[in-house]
Design goal:
Number of domains: 3
Shape: elongated
Helix content: 40-55%
Radius of gyration: 26 Å
CATH class of the largest domain: Mainly Alpha
Number of helices: 21
CATH superfamily of the largest domain: Hypothetical protein af1432
Distance between the termini: 50 Å
CATH topology of the largest domain: Hypothetical protein af1432
Strand order of the largest sheet: 8-7-6-9-11-10
Structural class: alpha/beta
Oligomer: single chain
Largest sheet: 6 strands, mixed
Strand content: 15-25%
CATH architecture of the largest domain: Orthogonal Bundle
Length: about 525
């Protein structure tokens, strides 16, 4: 029986909490065709980047503007039939850097019921790449994606199969305006200072993408988001036949130089009167355009092409990836979690064969103890796998108390495809796979957001503790795990050896040592049985 068109359509919303603006996108995902169309987009200038100059905190005024906008976004999404669980929200550099950023996100969750992912710079770049890839065909040619935001600039080298380099630099239009623009129009000396500052900031990112280019490749420069869109709108307004939309519109470096020269000579009032510039964008267009001009010069780009899709569309694509609705063209992105975990494991010298054994034991226990040792709905399975693969990475630093080192490395590492909160949970699961159970004073425990996250981490860490107990020797000896439930508060485990003459007394003793922790944590008595026969 074929699925009716109406039953295959599912509304999904993406909210991008940026430094300058909050963007909302409501999409209609076709689960049968595995594609999406944009129903509605909205943008509100909230200026979260205008932080307290002394503390760096998000200001009360900016927080109030953001809450008003987010409440509107939530209600608008609901009016389009979007279920609360299908509203995907991400916060970027302004919230990432503010000391009170996590408090802000906690307040959003408590007061508005919106769960917000605090994404890292490279993860922000990955989401931008996904958004752009959903809106234009790359073919066989590499593309450089440049996204100038309010607080950061992302530069991505990618093709249709892979993102070769994901970079994020702490230079953006709002940041430069706040820190360096004191006179308007800018004096010539300040313009040259800004160009030098921007060049110095972007150099590591430009060097990285150049190193990833093959000999003879000439990448297409794709520009996204506010600054590039505003410059393109100004240029298009002067065309004899202005385009209906800016997607695919091209701006030469010569044209950009001419537009910027004019903007530099204007007063704020004159800029606000320019066709294509709204009032709020006019305030920050000069530093934004300087970043764009400097980046083009450093990259040797003669022109740029506009893509109207960026991070908010990337949130929708990422939602589809997580729900297994994209499996071919985005094969690299769909396996990004697995690839980034394996990359980190290799980076820290993890014995992959042993890590994979521990992961298989952990997942076997996960399946057999559903409803007994944990009540996870499936979300914890990937977190458990990642923690199992990385649980021993702390031995790269020291074998003593290595679980604490593992927590630090995972917490501060780069796990693409995982939200900030998911990465913290993976780190905490690895942290509590040995020694003491979680305690309120532990930083790893304090950083987890809410009771549900702590409950999930505690239960997954128990499973990992038991799985690690079964891997005591360099070579595999345990072929399988058979768990029997003895009522609601007890279970028995029998281990199957790889060969009939193998003695598993070491593994049984090690697993039996986990029993007190299991009983203390979840009130279930664990008994390890002798081998059958």
């Amino acid at each position: 029986m074929t699925e009716s068109p109406s039953s295959s359509l599912r509304p999904v919303a993406g909210i991008d909490i940026g430094t300058n603006s909050i963007h909302l996108l409501i999409a209609q995902v076709d689960t049968a065709l595995r594609s999406f169309s944009v129903l509605l987009t909205e943008k509100s200038t909230t200026r979260l980047g205008e932080r307290d100059p002394e503390t760096g905190d998000l200001s009360p005024e900016a927080i109030e503007r953001a809450f008003t906008t987010l409440r509107h976004c939530r209600e608008l999404a609901a009016s389009h039939g979007v279920q609360p669980g299908d509203v995907v929200t991400a916060a970027t550099s302004a919230v990432r850097e503010a000391p009170n950023g996590r408090e802000f996100l906690q307040a959003i969750q408590e007061q508005l019921g919106l769960e917000v992912d605090l994404v890292s710079g490279p993860e922000e770049a990955r989401l931008i790449y996904l958004g752009v890839l959903s809106g234009m065909a790359f073919g066989d040619q590499p593309h450089l994606i440049l996204d100038i935001g309010g607080g950061s600039t992302e530069l991505v080298l990618a093709d249709g199969r892979d993102a070769r380099a994901l970079t994020s630099t702490r230079v953006g239009a709002v940041r430069l305006q706040r820190e360096f623009v004191h006179d308007d129009p800018l004096p010539p000396q300040r313009v040259e200072f800004l160009r030098a500052f921007i060049q110095g900031s972007l150099e590591p990112a430009v060097l990285k993408v150049r190193q990833r280019l093959e000999a003879g490749e000439r990448p297409v420069l794709v520009a996204t988001s506010g600054t590039a869109m505003a410059i393109a709108a100004m240029a298009a307004a002067e065309d004899p036949r202005p385009p209906l939309r800016l997607q695919g519109y091209r701006v030469s470096r010569e044209r950009l130089d001419q537009l910027l020269a004019r903007l530099l000579g204007m007063t704020p009032a004159q800029r606000r009167a320019v066709p294509g510039l709204n009032e709020r964008r006019a305030e920050i267009i000069v530093p934004g355009a300087l970043i764009l001009q400097t980046a083009m010069a450093m990259l040797g780009a003669k022109e740029l092409v506009i893509c109207e899709r960026a991070l908010r569309e990337g949130l929708i694509v990422d939602w589809m990836l997580r729900n297994d609705l994209i499996v071919d063209r985005f094969a690299f992105q769909s396996s990004i979690r697995q690839r980034t975990v394996l990359h980190q494991a290799q980076r820290y010298g993890v014995d992959l064969a042993r890590a994979e054994r521990v992961a298989s034991y952990a997942l076997s226990l996960y399946c057999q103890t559903q409803g007994l040792l944990h009540s996870d709905d499936g979300t914890g399975r990937q977190l458990l796998w990642a923690a199992a693969m990385l649980h021993s990475c702390g031995q790269h630093i020291n074998t003593g108390a290595y679980h604490k080192h593992s927590w630090y490395l995972i917490h501060h590492g780069e796990l693409l495809g995982y939200s900030d909160s998911e990465q913290l949970m993976v780190a905490a699961i690895a942290r509590y796979h040995r020694r003491s159970l979680p305690k309120k004073r532990h930083e790893a425990w304090q950083l987890l957001e809410g009771r549900e996250q702590r409950r999930l981490v505690a239960s997954m860490a128990l499973l990992l503790r038991m799985a690690v107990a079964l891997d005591r020797r360099p070579q595999p000896v345990v072929a399988g795990i058979q768990l029997r439930r003895d009522g609601d508060s007890a279970c028995s485990i029998r281990l199957e050896p790889m060969a009939s003459d193998l003695d598993l007394s070491l593994e049984r003793w090690s697993l039996d040592a986990c029993a007190p922790a299991v009983e203390e944590a979840v009130g279930v008595r664990l008994r390890v049985l002798e081998p059958s026969g």
